[in-house]
Amino acid sequence: MSKGGGLASMTFDDGPDGLWTARVLDALLASEARATFFVTGPLAREHPALVERMRDEGHEVALHCSRHVRHTGLGEEEIEADAVSGLGDLRALGLSARRWRPPWGIVTGSTRRVARRLGLEISLWNADTHDWRGDPAERMLAAVSPSLKDGSVVLMHDGLGPGARRTGCHQTVALVPALADRLRDLGCEPVPMSELARRGSCAEVAP
Ligand SMILES: [Zn+2]
User: Fold this and answer.
1) pLDDT in tens, 132-148
2) CA 64 – ligand 1 centroid, Å
3) In angstroms, what is the span from residue 24 Cα to ligand 1's centroid?
4) Phi (first) and psi of residue 61, to 5 degrees
5) 158 is catalytic
6) More confident residue, 7 or 197
7) Of residues 47, 64, 71, 157, which has the active-site annotation?
8) pLDDT tens profile 20-60
Protein backbone atom coordinates (compact mmCIF):
# COMPACT_ATOMS: atom_id res chain seq x y z
CA MET A 1 0.00 0.00 0.00
CA SER A 2 1.09 3.54 -0.67
CA LYS A 3 1.76 5.71 2.34
CA GLY A 4 1.21 9.02 0.58
CA GLY A 5 -2.57 9.08 0.77
CA GLY A 6 -2.90 9.70 -2.97
CA LEU A 7 -4.99 7.66 -5.39
CA ALA A 8 -4.65 6.86 -9.08
CA SER A 9 -6.34 4.47 -11.50
CA MET A 10 -5.01 2.04 -14.03
CA THR A 11 -7.69 1.47 -16.66
CA PHE A 12 -7.91 -1.13 -19.44
CA ASP A 13 -10.02 -0.93 -22.59
CA ASP A 14 -11.01 -3.33 -25.40
CA GLY A 15 -11.17 -6.62 -23.45
CA PRO A 16 -11.83 -9.10 -22.16
CA ASP A 17 -9.37 -10.91 -24.39
CA GLY A 18 -9.09 -14.69 -24.24
CA LEU A 19 -5.31 -14.59 -24.11
CA TRP A 20 -4.23 -11.28 -22.56
CA THR A 21 -6.78 -10.32 -19.94
CA ALA A 22 -5.88 -13.20 -17.63
CA ARG A 23 -2.23 -12.12 -17.81
CA VAL A 24 -3.14 -8.54 -16.97
CA LEU A 25 -5.23 -9.82 -14.05
CA ASP A 26 -2.31 -11.97 -12.88
CA ALA A 27 0.00 -8.93 -13.01
CA LEU A 28 -2.49 -6.81 -11.04
CA LEU A 29 -2.90 -9.57 -8.47
CA ALA A 30 0.86 -9.94 -8.04
CA SER A 31 1.12 -6.16 -7.56
CA GLU A 32 -1.87 -6.09 -5.20
CA ALA A 33 -3.30 -3.35 -7.41
CA ARG A 34 -6.94 -2.88 -8.37
CA ALA A 35 -8.11 -1.30 -11.62
CA THR A 36 -11.06 -0.48 -13.88
CA PHE A 37 -11.80 -2.54 -16.99
CA PHE A 38 -13.87 -0.90 -19.74
CA VAL A 39 -15.16 -3.99 -21.48
CA THR A 40 -16.79 -4.65 -24.82
CA GLY A 41 -20.23 -6.23 -24.30
CA PRO A 42 -19.97 -9.13 -26.78
CA LEU A 43 -16.47 -10.03 -25.54
CA ALA A 44 -17.72 -10.00 -21.95
CA ARG A 45 -20.42 -12.47 -22.97
CA GLU A 46 -17.80 -14.59 -24.70
CA HIS A 47 -15.49 -14.66 -21.66
CA PRO A 48 -17.72 -14.67 -18.56
CA ALA A 49 -15.04 -16.30 -16.39
CA LEU A 50 -12.69 -13.37 -17.01
CA VAL A 51 -15.38 -10.87 -16.05
CA GLU A 52 -16.08 -12.90 -12.93
CA ARG A 53 -12.37 -12.81 -12.10
CA MET A 54 -12.30 -9.02 -12.50
CA ARG A 55 -15.16 -8.68 -10.05
CA ASP A 56 -13.89 -11.28 -7.59
CA GLU A 57 -10.44 -9.71 -7.49
CA GLY A 58 -11.78 -6.27 -6.59
CA HIS A 59 -11.67 -4.55 -9.96
CA GLU A 60 -14.38 -2.36 -11.41
CA VAL A 61 -16.12 -3.56 -14.57
CA ALA A 62 -17.37 -0.70 -16.72
CA LEU A 63 -18.75 -0.26 -20.23
CA HIS A 64 -16.65 0.45 -23.31
CA CYS A 65 -19.08 -0.37 -26.14
CA SER A 66 -20.76 -3.09 -28.13
CA ARG A 67 -19.41 -2.09 -31.52
CA HIS A 68 -16.12 -0.17 -31.49
CA VAL A 69 -17.40 2.77 -33.56
CA ARG A 70 -16.68 6.49 -33.16
CA HIS A 71 -19.71 8.37 -31.86
CA THR A 72 -19.08 11.07 -34.44
CA GLY A 73 -20.15 8.47 -37.02
CA LEU A 74 -23.33 7.37 -35.23
CA GLY A 75 -26.74 8.91 -34.67
CA GLU A 76 -27.97 9.40 -31.13
CA GLU A 77 -30.32 6.42 -31.36
CA GLU A 78 -27.47 4.21 -32.55
CA ILE A 79 -25.26 5.38 -29.71
CA GLU A 80 -28.01 4.63 -27.22
CA ALA A 81 -28.72 1.20 -28.75
CA ASP A 82 -25.02 0.34 -28.59
CA ALA A 83 -24.75 1.30 -24.91
CA VAL A 84 -28.02 -0.43 -23.99
CA SER A 85 -26.82 -3.60 -25.69
CA GLY A 86 -23.48 -3.51 -23.85
CA LEU A 87 -25.19 -2.87 -20.54
CA GLY A 88 -27.49 -5.82 -21.27
CA ASP A 89 -24.47 -8.05 -21.86
CA LEU A 90 -23.07 -7.02 -18.49
CA ARG A 91 -26.42 -7.40 -16.74
CA ALA A 92 -26.61 -10.96 -18.06
CA LEU A 93 -23.39 -11.54 -16.09
CA GLY A 94 -24.89 -10.00 -12.97
CA LEU A 95 -23.14 -6.66 -13.30
CA SER A 96 -24.57 -3.20 -13.35
CA ALA A 97 -22.06 -0.79 -14.90
CA ARG A 98 -22.19 2.87 -13.97
CA ARG A 99 -19.16 4.11 -15.87
CA TRP A 100 -18.76 4.48 -19.64
CA ARG A 101 -15.74 5.15 -21.84
CA PRO A 102 -16.88 5.40 -25.47
CA PRO A 103 -14.59 4.13 -28.27
CA TRP A 104 -11.46 6.29 -28.69
CA GLY A 105 -12.75 8.49 -25.89
CA ILE A 106 -14.78 10.42 -28.45
CA VAL A 107 -17.66 12.17 -26.74
CA THR A 108 -20.36 14.10 -28.59
CA GLY A 109 -23.44 15.96 -27.40
CA SER A 110 -25.39 12.78 -28.15
CA THR A 111 -22.97 10.75 -26.00
CA ARG A 112 -23.63 13.10 -23.09
CA ARG A 113 -27.41 12.98 -23.50
CA VAL A 114 -27.39 9.17 -23.73
CA ALA A 115 -25.15 8.97 -20.66
CA ARG A 116 -27.61 11.12 -18.73
CA ARG A 117 -30.59 9.03 -19.82
CA LEU A 118 -28.88 5.75 -18.92
CA GLY A 119 -27.35 7.01 -15.67
CA LEU A 120 -23.80 6.45 -16.93
CA GLU A 121 -20.80 8.52 -15.98
CA ILE A 122 -18.52 9.30 -18.93
CA SER A 123 -15.02 8.35 -17.78
CA LEU A 124 -11.99 9.29 -19.84
CA TRP A 125 -8.30 9.48 -18.82
CA ASN A 126 -5.58 12.04 -18.18
CA ALA A 127 -2.45 9.90 -18.73
CA ASP A 128 -1.93 7.79 -21.85
CA THR A 129 0.55 4.93 -22.25
CA HIS A 130 -0.18 4.59 -26.01
CA ASP A 131 0.30 0.88 -25.42
CA TRP A 132 -1.55 0.04 -28.64
CA ARG A 133 1.64 1.07 -30.48
CA GLY A 134 3.60 -1.85 -29.01
CA ASP A 135 6.40 0.19 -27.39
CA PRO A 136 8.52 -1.59 -24.75
CA ALA A 137 7.22 -1.26 -21.18
CA GLU A 138 10.29 0.76 -20.04
CA ARG A 139 9.72 3.32 -22.79
CA MET A 140 6.01 3.59 -21.96
CA LEU A 141 6.80 4.06 -18.27
CA ALA A 142 9.36 6.77 -19.02
CA ALA A 143 6.95 8.56 -21.36
CA VAL A 144 3.92 8.46 -19.05
CA SER A 145 5.74 9.13 -15.76
CA PRO A 146 5.86 12.96 -16.02
CA SER A 147 2.05 13.05 -16.21
CA LEU A 148 1.51 10.79 -13.16
CA LYS A 149 0.20 12.39 -10.00
CA ASP A 150 -2.52 12.10 -7.41
CA GLY A 151 -5.77 11.65 -9.38
CA SER A 152 -4.14 10.17 -12.49
CA VAL A 153 -6.28 7.94 -14.68
CA VAL A 154 -3.97 5.90 -16.90
CA LEU A 155 -5.15 4.45 -20.21
CA MET A 156 -4.05 0.95 -21.22
CA HIS A 157 -5.56 -1.92 -23.22
CA ASP A 158 -5.96 -5.58 -22.28
CA GLY A 159 -7.02 -6.48 -25.82
CA LEU A 160 -6.18 -5.64 -29.41
CA GLY A 161 -8.76 -3.13 -30.51
CA PRO A 162 -9.15 -1.64 -33.96
CA GLY A 163 -6.06 0.36 -34.91
CA ALA A 164 -3.68 -1.57 -32.63
CA ARG A 165 -0.21 -1.68 -34.14
CA ARG A 166 0.96 -4.61 -32.01
CA THR A 167 0.34 -8.33 -32.17
CA GLY A 168 0.02 -8.95 -28.42
CA CYS A 169 -0.24 -7.20 -25.07
CA HIS A 170 3.05 -8.49 -23.55
CA GLN A 171 4.32 -4.98 -22.95
CA THR A 172 1.13 -3.92 -21.19
CA VAL A 173 1.43 -6.94 -18.92
CA ALA A 174 5.05 -5.96 -18.22
CA LEU A 175 4.05 -2.35 -17.59
CA VAL A 176 1.50 -3.15 -14.85
CA PRO A 177 3.92 -3.93 -11.99
CA ALA A 178 6.32 -1.15 -13.01
CA LEU A 179 3.48 1.36 -13.15
CA ALA A 180 2.05 0.21 -9.81
CA ASP A 181 5.51 0.70 -8.25
CA ARG A 182 5.91 4.14 -9.84
CA LEU A 183 2.48 5.28 -8.64
CA ARG A 184 3.26 4.09 -5.12
CA ASP A 185 6.62 5.88 -5.25
CA LEU A 186 4.57 9.00 -5.93
CA GLY A 187 2.39 8.24 -2.93
CA CYS A 188 -0.60 7.06 -4.98
CA GLU A 189 -2.37 3.77 -4.43
CA PRO A 190 -3.78 2.21 -7.64
CA VAL A 191 -7.55 1.84 -7.18
CA PRO A 192 -10.60 1.55 -9.46
CA MET A 193 -12.00 4.81 -10.83
CA SER A 194 -15.09 4.42 -8.65
CA GLU A 195 -12.86 4.95 -5.60
CA LEU A 196 -11.21 8.01 -7.14
CA ALA A 197 -14.64 9.39 -7.94
CA ARG A 198 -15.84 8.87 -4.38
CA ARG A 199 -12.99 11.06 -3.25
CA GLY A 200 -14.05 13.58 -5.91
CA SER A 201 -10.61 14.48 -7.19
CA CYS A 202 -10.15 12.85 -10.55
CA ALA A 203 -10.43 14.43 -13.96
CA GLU A 204 -13.03 12.01 -15.19
CA VAL A 205 -14.50 13.94 -18.05
CA ALA A 206 -12.24 15.78 -20.41
CA PRO A 207 -13.36 19.35 -21.15
ZN1 LIG B 1 -11.28 0.93 -27.42
Assistant:
1) 999 999 999 999 999 99
2) 7
3) 16
4) -105, 120
5) no
6) 7
7) 157
8) 999 999 999 999 999 999 999 999 999 999 999 999 999 99
Q: Which domains does the chain have, with CATH numbers?
A: 6-199 (3.20.20.370)
Neighbours of ion ligand 1 (CB under 5 A): 13-14, 161
138 Cα–ligand 1 center, Å: 23
Catalytic entry in 13, 14, 131, 158: 13
Ligand 1 centroid to 4 CA: how many Å? Answer: 32
CB atoms within 10 A of CB 124: 17
> Do the Cβ atoms of 132 and 164 come closer than 8 Å?
yes
13 is annotated as an active-site residue = yes
